[in-house]
Write a structure and sequence with these properties.
Blueprint: H1 2-9, H2 13-17, H3 21-53, H4 56-79, H5 87-116, H6 118-181, H7 193-246, H8 251-259, H9 263-286, H10 291-333, H11 336-365
Helix pairs in contact: 1-3, 3-4, 3-5, 3-9, 5-9, 6-7, 6-8
Pfam families: DUF4407
Protein name: DUF4407 domain-containing protein
Transmembrane segments: 27-50, 56-73, 261-286
Length: 366
């Protein structure tokens, strides 16, 4: 277990074997912090991805990849933070790593906050869904309001026409009855010419009413059928858009709902994860220079000295070889035999070039 956690810390296991047990325990503790931070990142990302894909297998697979990524980042951060004689140098070296740790802490803490405050988030989302449902009903109603209003007005006009005609018939009926009884009109009892005239008007209006009722009833039936079709389309529109509102509980919606909850509790949870994520770095910054650090610095100095020495020797060898070659070629340049050989070779080369040019020109001219 200790060897595994030392591996997680990114320290040189062979070099730590030469150190004391306390030094090994220190780096095992740092490695354990790195491991458990990655484990928490796995659970957090798996839950966050489950809210997106709604699949345990996909969430576990992507969560494992994210956990390994966080593990490698933390291990790299801790292993590359070297102890120095000046604390300011260590702090300056750790600053970008601390910023990266803050980003990782935010990424890890948010999904777990979503799980911890799941009930409160569901309550906020329910209120938002209800509000969105009312707004959607209002908007869909506005889309069909003009058609429904037109059909309703046309139906009401037909009803009013029948009602008015009935009122007219009743008024004419009352008029000719009063004329017959002598209580109105000419005030003469009996059915005289005036009575007959008023009775004819009533009968004509009654005939119109008799014709108007079925005609308007047929028109109203057609209009009510069209109105019902519009209302069916409105209901279908509401039915089609409601699932979108019902499914409004994705990752972004939950994060938005989380931001509407009290900030202080969420902030302290973030601080907790930030403390966990930065604890290996803070531990290395606060810890004094130990046996492992001295041995590592000694080994790095040895490697640096060896590389510097090899580079210097290589430079000297190159310079020496260059000087020797210059001397050799300077001595050869004064030899008559070499001059004659080069002259002979140059003459043969020029002859071959002249022959080749002649043959080429001869081929062109035919």
């Amino acid at each position: 277990m200790q060897s595994f956690f030392i591996f997680c810390s990114g320290a040189d296991a062979d070099l730590l074997d030469e150190c004391s047990a306390g030094e090994r325990n220190k780096y095992a503790g740092i490695g354990a912090t790195v491991f458990f931070t990655a484990l928490m990142a796995f659970f957090a990302s798996a839950y966050a991805l489950y809210t997106v894909f709604d699949s345990y297998l996909v969430a576990a697979a992507f969560g494992l990849v994210w956990g390994m990524l966080i593990f490698n980042l933390d291990r790299y951060i801790v292993s590359t933070l070297k102890k120095s004689d000046k604390k300011i140098n260590e702090i300056w070296q750790a600053t970008p790593r601390i910023l990266l740790a803050i980003i990782i802490a935010v990424v890890i803490s948010k999904p777990l906050e979503l799980k911890m405050f799941e009930k409160e988030i569901d309550r906020v989302l329910l209120a938002e869904k209800n509000e969105m449902t009312l707004e959607n009903q209002e908007q869909v109603g506005l889309l069909f309001a003009a058609e429904e209003s037109a059909f309703a007005k046309a139906i009401q006009d037909l009803k009013d026409e029948v009602t008015n005609k009935e009122a007219e018939v009743e008024a004419l009926y009352a008029t000719y009855i009063a004329e017959a009884e002598g209580t109105a009109g000419t005030n003469r009892l009996g059915k005289g010419p005036v009575y007959k005239e008023k009775r004819d008007k009533h009968d004509a209006a009654l005939a119109e009413l008799t014709t108007l009722k079925p005609a308007n009833a047929e028109k109203m039936l057609a209009l009510e059928t069209q109105l019902a079709e519009v209302q069916e389309r409105e209901a279908a529109q509401l039915l089609a858009t409601q699932p979108i509102i019902d499914n409004f509980d994705g990752l972004m919606a939950r994060i938005s709902a989380l931001n509407k909850l009290p900030f202080l509790i969420s902030f302290f949870i973030f601080l907790l994860f930030l403390a966990i994520e930065t604890s290996p770095i803070i531990a290395k910054l606060l810890a004094p220079k130990g046996e492992y650090d001295f041995k590592l610095a000694e080994r790095e100095d040895l490697v640096k000295s060896w590389v510097t020495q090899q580079k210097q020797q290589q430079t000297v060898m190159v310079q020496t070889d260059r000087d020797l070659n210059n001397r050799v070629y300077a001595d050869i340049a004064d030899e008559e035999e070499l001059y004659n050989y080069k002259k002979k070779t140059a003459r043969q080369l020029m002859q071959k070039q002249a022959d080749a040019f002649y043959e080429k020109q001869k081929g062109i001219l035919g």
